[in-house]
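sorry for the late reply, my laptop died twice this morning and i had to redo everyting from scratch. anyway the thing you sent over, i finally got around to it. pasting the sequence first so we're on the same page, its 350 residues, then the predicted structure underneath. double check i copied it right bc i was rushing
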Amino acid sequence: MWNMLAKLPRHEHNHAFLIKHFGDAELVKSWFDSTTAFDEQLHCDHGHCGGRRVCEMPNGKMLAVCNDDTTSCPDLHISNNDRRLHTLSLKKIAGLIADSTNEISVSKDIQTIDGTSSCIRVGHYIPRGTIRYPVFFGIDIHDGDLEGIINHVIGLDGSAILLMPSIDNISQSKINAIRAKGSNLIGLQGLTNADMLIDNRKASEEFSAFHEAQEDPMPEVSCVLFPTPADAEWSNITVKFTDGHTVRVTCNTGSNRISQVYNFTQMGMADGRTASPNKQWNLLEGFADERGQFTWDNPKANRNQKKQKQELKKVFQKFFGIYDSDPFEDYKDHKNRVCYRSKFHISPDE
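ok and here's the structure:
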């Protein structure tokens, strides 16, 4: 079906043509908006007559008559519904794409784009935490459509995913221009199967490969990556020490709960010289001892703890994929000294 959409001659067609083109009335209803206008010409399947004109008979009925009187094309009895004009709806298609890919972490957020009527935002792909990539749908029908779509994606500040019905006729130079910006162009016809418009397994593979190819925002931090559910917040996370070297990390968003055990090395807090826990791990233990606070009364308090807290912040942001906020906040104690409080829940080994 996506390939048929790529071959659509115009955005607007009469109902009879769309049924003939797609062969599915429900699909036409879900992709197009019905208008109050009627077509005066219908497609003709016979010869090269250039179409059929609509004629109203004295009895009020309508015929679609071949424009070439020399052909033997039979007149067709039609209704107003056959010649009613329907307009392609990018909003409807974007909604279908978002609903179909919700299971692979595409958050629906449809938005039209100023300056181009042939491209629309579907939503955001959120592989984990708050890592977000906008997902667009574009269709190339009119002259200049493709240039407008490509230029929009290239002009974005960050990386994005652009979906189009087919990319068979798109030049490699345009595909390379998008990829050079860290974005990706995917043809929907390659993500479908016999039973559904979008196969989530295929889509998940394509989207995951795109995310894995992105530049590491914190290459200086070496740690495993916790599978944080999409849009999780620090308040959804619990860290509980199980012994001096390991913690159980749990993220519970209500609809999704993940719990796994990690050691200090896996979390990126090993001293490179001694392979023992580093100062960030010791600071994390200090937060656990005070159940989420770190005061100057803590035995692990020292004059370098501000810098250590900044390093611990980086580790937590990369480990959880929550880059848009700080896992810690400052507050002042009764002596007006700056202390720290974690936005996640943390407790010691008991």
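The CA atoms of residues 279 and 304 lie 10 Å apart.
thats about all i looked at so far, will dig more tmrw
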